[in-house]
Every structure is written in structure tokens, then in C-alpha cells.
Amino acid sequence: MILKHLGDRLVAAVLLLLLLPVFAVIALLIKLDTRGPVLFTQDRVGKDESVFRICKFRSMIVNAITMGHGVSVLENDFRVTRVGKHLRNWSLDELPQLINILKGEMSFVGPRPTLQYQVDQYTPFQRKRLKMRPGVTGLAQINGRKGIPWEKRIEYDVDYVENWSLWLDLKIILRTVGVTLWRRKGLHCGDNVKEFDQE
């Protein structure tokens, strides 16, 4: 686990330096596309129920959470910006989470960071997913993402926590690359807006 955390921070630092030009281009595109901040930040619940501010590139209009389906994002959602649609399709909106990883709030692999109102509804079994730092990707992301029910995603998260290994992390990272590049399913929560999805 120590190797995992040290590796996370080291790789995050290197990637942040290498991707600075990419960050600059994306930031410029967002500013040219719509009014509002470049980054979307929101309180999320992490390891041991600690609260932190997650960072993403803004892919939706300002105050989107107060419109439409709230935290659920449907396909062709009117709140997603033109640039944001491409950012979300290729998961580029997640890049600023490298900052969260560098700060030790997140990991590259782990359960996705969640919202407090979701945690408040967890069963004891579901609460197990909070025993590890949240990740940019995880078992749920490579097995259907938002295309599978919310409860099933949490089962994948708990399974990851209970069976974690560095080898499992490596397999998830490699499969994430494939899912991002070639499989476009599971990007939205479909018609079931009762699911607990967030931007």
C-alpha cells in the first residue's frame, strides 16, 4: 500500500508537468466555448469519510446541478457544453484529478469519489468502499461504468477493496486505456435518473 501511494504521487507529479500544455489548451477551449470557470470543484467523500474538493475540467454550464436531472447526466444532456461533450467522451475532464492524487486525496485506481448524501444512504456493506482512497478509475469503470446499476458499481468497489493488489491496479489501468480508446458505452446513466451519478 505504501508503494501504491508513493507511486501515485510520483506519477501524478510527472504527468502534471508533462501535460501542462494540454491543460492550457483545454482551459482556453473551455473559456472560448462558454462563460464560467475552467475548473469544476465539488466536495466529495474519500477514504474514511474524509471530505475533499475534487477538481475536474468544467464540462457543463454553470450551476448545471440546479437544472435538468441534477447530479444525473443523460445522453445528449442540454447542460453539457460543446467542448464538454468531447472532454467527457474521452475522460479528459478527469485530468485535473492529478492534483487530488498529488495531494494524497485520491489514487489512480480505487472506488470513485462519492457525494455525502450518497454516503448517508450506504448500508454497512456499501460503506466498505470508503476504506481506500477514491480513484480516477476502478473495477466499475472497466465493467460498464454508468451503464450498470449504482448498486452493482458499489459491489465492484467493495470487491476491489477486499481483493486489492498492485497487480490488480495494473490490470485495471491497462483495461481503462482500452475502454477509453475503443469502448464508448457507459458514459451516461441512460433513462434511469434515480441512479446516483455525478458530473
What does this structure look like?
With 199 residues, the protein is mainly alpha-helical. The chain has one domain. It is 42% helix and 10% strand. The chain has 8 helices and 4 strands. It has a two-stranded antiparallel sheet with strand order 1-2. A two-stranded parallel sheet has the order 3-4. The C terminus is likely disordered.
Report a brief summary of the structure.
Helix content is 42%, strand content 10%. The protein is mostly helical and 199 residues long. The protein is globular and about 45 Å long.
Notable traits:
two-stranded antiparallel sheet, 42% helix, two-stranded parallel ribbon, 10% strand, 199 residues
Structural class: mainly alpha
**Percent of residues in beta strands?**
5-15%
Distance between the termini: 29 Å
Helical stretch tally: 8
How many separate structural domains?
1
- What is Rg? 16 Å
Order of helices and strands: HHEEHHEHEHHH
- What would you call the shape? globular
Helix content: 40-55%
Strand order of the largest sheet: 1-2
Q: The biggest beta sheet, please?
A: 2 strands, antiparallel
In round numbers, the mean pLDDT is: 89
Pick out the low-confidence regions.
188-199
Write the layout of secondary structure elements.
Elements: H1 2-18, H2 20-33, E1 39-45, E2 51-57, H3 82-89, H4 97-102, E3 107-109, H5 116-119, E4 135-137, H6 139-142, H7 150-162, H8 166-182
